[in-house]
Structures are given as C-alpha cells and as structure tokens.
Design the sequence.
C-alpha cells in the first residue's frame, strides 16, 4: 500500500498554506490561497466527499479569490506595514502544546472508513436504506441536506442572506 | 466603476464561455438530486457567471444588465425556501415536511422530491444574489448608486 498520492497532496497543501502566510506580496498570497483551496478540494474528492469537494472548488478557489482580489483593489496592493512583529512568547509555548493535545485526542477517533464507528453503525444505514423510497433522490447527501435536515439548511440560507445584507449596510453607505 | 477589459481574447472567450457556464450552473442545480452538486454550488456558479460578464464587459455593457437586475432580488431565495415550509404548514403538517405539500395526484415520495427541488431553487437564488451583492458592495461607490437608480 503506497501513499505517494496522499503524501504529495499533503506536501502541496502545506507548501501553499505556508506560502500564503509568508509571502510579502498580497496578490501572490491571494492566488496561493486559491491554489490551497483547489488542492483541498482534490483531497475531499480523494476521500470520497464529492459534494464537499465541489463546494470547495467553486467557492474557495473561485468566488473567494474574486472577493479577496476586489478587496485588494479597493486598498493598497503593497501594504508597507506588512512586516509583522515577532509572535509573543505565550503563543510560541501555547500553540505547540495545543497541537500536541489535539494529536493525542485524534488517536481516539475512529479510523477513516471504519464500518464499526458509531455514525456508520447507528444513523447512516437508515439514511442509506430509506432515502430512495422516501424521497426518490439517489444522492443521499442532497436528501439529507434538503429533506431530513431541511431546517438546518434553511438557517444556513439565512446566514448567507444576513452576510449579504451586512456587507451592503457596511460598505454601501455614502462617504461622510 | 469597473471598466471593460480591453483584450480581444478575453472578450471573445467571455462571449463564448458565459452562456456555457450558465447552462452548467443550471445543470448542477437540477442534477443535484442525482449526482454531486445542488442548490448551493449551482447558485454560486450562476452568480459568478453574471459577475464574469460584469468583470469582462464593464458595468455599463448590455451583458451586465442581468447582474444589476438580479441585485434587486435580495431575500427572494429566503422567501422561496420559507414559502415551501409555509405551504407544508397550510397542507396540514409540520414546517418543511414536504410530504404535506398539497399537490393532487402525487405520491408522498414524489412530493418530497418536488420539495427538494423547490428548496434547492430557493438556496440557489439566495446564494447567487448574495454573491453578486457582496461583489457590488466591494466595488466602487458609483456602481451601486447607478444600479440602484436604474
């Protein structure tokens, strides 16, 4: 069992993420962030979550890049204050500790694709078995999002609507 | 004010690509029940295709009128989504329980399938309008005043 594809994807993710943080030119940082989203969508597709990969590719690599670029054109492309101060000591000590704690906790998570893990034993089989008879929708992700968990999706739509309204209220008023 | 792009390559490619992207967005929106995709992605693709017209042809061109008209539809998607829930309430059931949609001659499973399609259209309209609205908010001031004054 070889992990060549996974390891190269992980390396690309790490390189683009670090580049987006470290690069001085803000335009390059935005484009690197778009590359990061695209590689992340490849990772989702590789793990079998095609719907998530689709959303990540369209929103993360497409729309968010356009929004960042428009924000950049509204400001100064070369920010002179970009040279950051060194991180505080508390962050240097605390963040690696937090990482070690999370790695320690990740040991207890079920393995990827484990058929005996709690969600795939208790709730997934009923969705997978009843979705087509209930809703005539072969894509179980859509039927869960739009039918079984419809109220959640409605509130998500409210969140998006609120984001648009808030942007309009903040940005569209006349300059005093 | 977004000026039109002066490269002939970008303009001809945009003329060819924008209808294809819109057809693909509709396909993703209505194929979400049978494959990957759905209302959210379809709405983003439709919204970005209209934004592409604005970014390529400038905001005064006739191809950008659609985006400026769509801008007025803030909240219509929410209205569609909550309206389907309200229709379910009228049909005598719970909120957003599509089996209570009062449509004669449809089985319960077909009603739920129809409810999924309608709510996906609501999500797509909401997302597309919000994407266009945020981009127009981020652009210069006079665009917004022009588009709001007609």
Sequence:
């Amino acid at each position: 069992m070889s992990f060549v594809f996974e390891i190269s994807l992980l390396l690309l993710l790490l390189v683009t993420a670090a580049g987006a943080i470290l690069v001085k030119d803000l335009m390059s940082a935005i484009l690197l962030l778009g590359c990061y989203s695209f590689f992340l969508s490849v990772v989702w597709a590789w793990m079998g979550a095609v719907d998530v990969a689709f959303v990540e590719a369209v929103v993360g690599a497409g729309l968010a890049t356009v929004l960042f670029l428009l924000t950049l054109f509204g400001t100064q492309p070369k920010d002179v204050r970009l040279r950051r101060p060194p991180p505080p000591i508390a962050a240097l000590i605390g963040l690696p500790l937090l990482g070690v704690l999370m790695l320690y906790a990740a040991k207890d998570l079920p393995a990827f694709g484990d058929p005996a893990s709690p969600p795939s034993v208790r709730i997934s089989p009923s969705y997978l078995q009843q979705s087509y008879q209930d809703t005539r929708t072969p894509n179980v992700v859509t039927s869960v999002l739009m039918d079984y968990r419809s109220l959640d999706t409605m509130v998500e739509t409210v969140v998006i609507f609120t984001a648009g309204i808030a942007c309009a209220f903040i940005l569209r008023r006349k300059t005093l | 004010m977004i000026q039109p792009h002066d490269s002939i390559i970008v303009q001809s490619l945009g003329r060819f690509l924008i209808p294809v992207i819109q057809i693909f967005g509709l396909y993703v929106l209505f194929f979400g029940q049978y494959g990957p995709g759905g209302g959210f992605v379809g709405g983003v693709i439709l919204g970005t295709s209209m934004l592409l017209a604005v970014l390529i042809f400038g905001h005064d061109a006739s191809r950008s009128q659609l985006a400026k008209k769509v801008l007025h539809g803030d909240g219509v998607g929410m209205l569609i989504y909550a309206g389907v829930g309200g229709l379910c309430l009228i049909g005598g059931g719970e909120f957003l329980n599509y089996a209570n949609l009062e449509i004669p001659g449809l089985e319960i499973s077909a009603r739920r399938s129809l409810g999924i399609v309608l709510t996906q259209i609501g999500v797509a309209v909401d997302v597309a309008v919000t994407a266009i609205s945020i981009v127009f908010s981020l652009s210069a001031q006079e665009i917004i005043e022009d588009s709001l004054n007609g």
Notes: The helical segments of chain A are 4-22, 26-46, 50-74, 89-106, 118-122, 124-135, 140-148, 150-171. Residues 1-78 of chain A form one domain.
